[in-house]
Structures are given as structure tokens and as C-alpha cells.
TrEMBL record:
Protein name as annotated: DUF3592 domain-containing protein
UniProt keyword terms in alphabetical order: Membrane, Transmembrane, Transmembrane helix
Transmembrane stretches, start-end: 6-26, 121-139
UniProt entry tagged with the keyword Transmembrane: yes
Length: 156
């Protein structure tokens, strides 16, 4: 009974970690599709603003021509940190959703996409290994305590 509860608890913690990672993974996949298949447009960095918080990141304001020919200014896109005022960037957007815009990094290709997928899979593997290790350690600890070989009061 104690082992089952422990396994369930560690499993739920592992699922919670994966659930917390899921929105970021889905967003990266969505932006990756936009970067690879979206309509391209040129943008120029018009301002570099300081971070809003002490540990925040520098914000870059970009100006580009929208799909309807209007001039658009955005300051919420993730831009390479080394971008300076006046630097040109390539943006991509979905034709049916021009509000979903992503910065296309230089050299984007199959190799970059595969590298990103490999990194995501490595993160997933690390989470799964940590959860499996915690389960194995806990199961052995609980079994030893239940078998009476050690005093349960001395457990951490």
C-alpha cells in the first residue's frame, strides 16, 4: 500500500512537470512551423529597451510592413540578444493569422530544426530519468522500511 502511494505520488509529480513543460513545447512547435512555412517579410530594429525587471531580458522594438501593406511596430517578439538598433531581421507569419509573427534566425534549415527537436527530446529524457530514479529509490526505501530491516523513525 505504501509503495503504491509513493509510486502514484512521484508519478503525479512527473506528470505535473511534463504538464508545465507542455505549453512551452507547443508554443515552440507552433512558432517553428511559422518560421519554416510562413510568409517572409523584412523588419528593422528601431529601438532597444531596457528590461522591465532586474532579471528580465532586453526588449527590441521592430518595425515591418504588415500583410495588408500597413506599417507595424512590435516589441514583444523574441529577438537574438546581439541585435542592435538599425539591424535588419527576417520575420515570418502565417497567411491566415498575420498576428502570429516569429523572428527567423539566420541559417534556419533542417539542421536547425533537428537540433531543436533533439534538445527537446533530451529534456524529456532527463525528466523521465529523474522521475524513474526517484521512483526506484523510493520504492526500495519503502520496501526496506516495511520489511522491518530498518527503523522507520530513522528515515529522512
Amino acid at each position: 500500500m505504501v509503495t503504491t502511494v509513493y509510486v502514484a505520488l512521484v508519478g503525479l509529480i512527473g506528470l505535473a512537470v511534463l504538464a508545465l513543460m507542455a505549453p512551452a513545447a507547443v508554443n515552440e512547435v507552433r512558432l517553428g512551423v511559422v518560421r519554416r512555412r510562413g510568409v517572409r517579410t523584412s523588419a528593422r530594429c528601431v529601438a532597444v529597451l531596457p528590461p522591465r525587471t532586474r532579471k528580465g531580458r532586453t526588449r527590441h522594438v521592430l518595425e515591418f510592413t504588415g500583410p495588408a501593406g500597413e506599417q507595424v511596430t512590435r516589441g514583444d517578439l523574441r529577438v537574438p540578444p546581439a541585435t542592435l538598433v538599425g539591424d535588419g531581421l527576417t520575420l515570418a507569419h502565417r497567411p491566415e493569422r498575420p498576428d502570429v509573427v516569429a523572428v527567423v534566425p539566420p541559417g534556419l534549415g533542417l539542421r536547425t530544426a533537428l537540433r531543436a527537436a533533439r534538445t527537446g527530446l533530451l529534456y524529456l529524457l532527463v525528466v523521465l530519468l529523474v522521475v524513474a530514479g526517484a521512483m526506484a529509490f523510493g520504492i526500495e526505501l519503502v520496501r526496506t522500511a516495511v520489511s522491518g530491516d530498518i527503523d522507520p523513525d530513522t528515515l529522512p
